[in-house]
Specification:
Length: 304
């Protein structure tokens, strides 16, 4: 009974995290109506560090990183927080939240490709077919089924390309993070990585002269930012890694398939984004492709 209950709690935590991440794209677009990308990123991860730090310190004793680890964590912070969020948040200025969620779902595809190209891992025919299917799905979504746009050099909205670039960037971040997870807890390592990312974003905020942007946020804008910081960058990461400790990664990772569905539903309600049949078809191809790839691979860390 205790074993079943722990599994239920773990699945509940993972489901919460996925739902929150699905809604994060909508919250980001709401905040972007009032402030610039750097302000959204700085506030989100400043709040996230506080939440993550408090919870982590109440659970475990953080081991101080070595000088070598500091350089490693700072690089990961720039790559996985500052640069990654710049790609996503800037892309969301023009890209739809639903389109973003579908594209982000392709991250396991890029992880598989990295393993094949760089690590020499075997790429089975089923996985290769999944990659091809997911690629077609992305093309359908960004062009709304009009492939003629590609021949005209039009890859969807201007932000769609930035969102697409963020997927392989997170794949690289995930692969590079594996070494650190060997001698650091997941939440402890994420605390340091997120902290360095926030420091780099602080330098960006100051250099861009955006220190007074906070005054432009309305109650709705602050609600969106607090949701991103407390839930998306704080609690969701903790809950996700809690679930990974209790149940197999493949079972937890299967829940990521509902993230774009959540984003699509929330975007339709809050942003009035249209639900297009062609987009659902393209999204279905992406999910099928990712499923084929994931049949032979473990699931990596959170995509957002």
């Amino acid at each position: 009974m205790t074993h079943r209950r722990s599994h239920l709690v773990a699945f509940s935590k993972a489901t919460f995290a996925v739902i929150v991440w699905g809604a994060s794209f909508i919250a980001t677009k709401i905040a972007l109506r009032e402030v610039t990308p750097v302000t959204v990123i700085w506030l989100r991860f400043g709040i996230g560090i506080l939440v993550l730090g408090i919870i982590t310190l109440t659970r475990e004793k953080l081991s101080l990183p070595t000088r070598r680890d500091l350089a490693y964590f700072s690089f990961l912070g720039f790559l996985g927080i500052t640069f990654h969020q710049w790609l996503q948040v800037t892309g969301l200025i023009t890209s739809q939240a639903t389109t973003t969620a579908w594209i982000i779902t392709t991250i396991p595809i890029f992880i598989a490709l990295l393993g094949w190209l760089i690590l020499g891992e075997t790429l089975r025919w089923g996985a290769a077919g999944g990659i091809a299917l997911a690629g077609v799905g992305v093309m359908i979504i960004v062009t709304h089924g009009d492939f003629g746009k590609l021949f005209q050099g039009r890859f969807g909205a201007p932000g769609d390309l930035l969102i697409l670039l963020s997927a392989p960037n997170w794949a690289i971040f995930s692969v590079l993070s594996r070494r650190g997870l060997l001698n650091q807890s997941a939440s402890g390592m994420m605390f340091f990585v997120m902290g360095f990312g926030w420091i780099f974003t602080s330098l960006w905020l100051v250099s861009a002269g955006r220190l007074h942007d906070f005054a432009q946020l309305s109650a709705g804008g602050w609600t969106a930012v607090l949701f991103l910081g407390i839930f998306c960058s704080g609690l969701a990461y903790i809950f996700w890694y809690d679930a990974l400790k209790a149940i197999p990664a493949s079972q937890v990772g299967s829940l990521l398939y509902i993230e774009p569905i959540v984003a699509m539903g929330v975007a339709a309600v809050l942003l009035q984004e249209a639900l297009l049949l062609m987009e659902l078809f393209g999204g279905g191809l992406i999910l099928l492709g990712v499923w084929l790839v994931n049949r032979h691979r473990a699931v990596e860390g959170p995509p957002d």
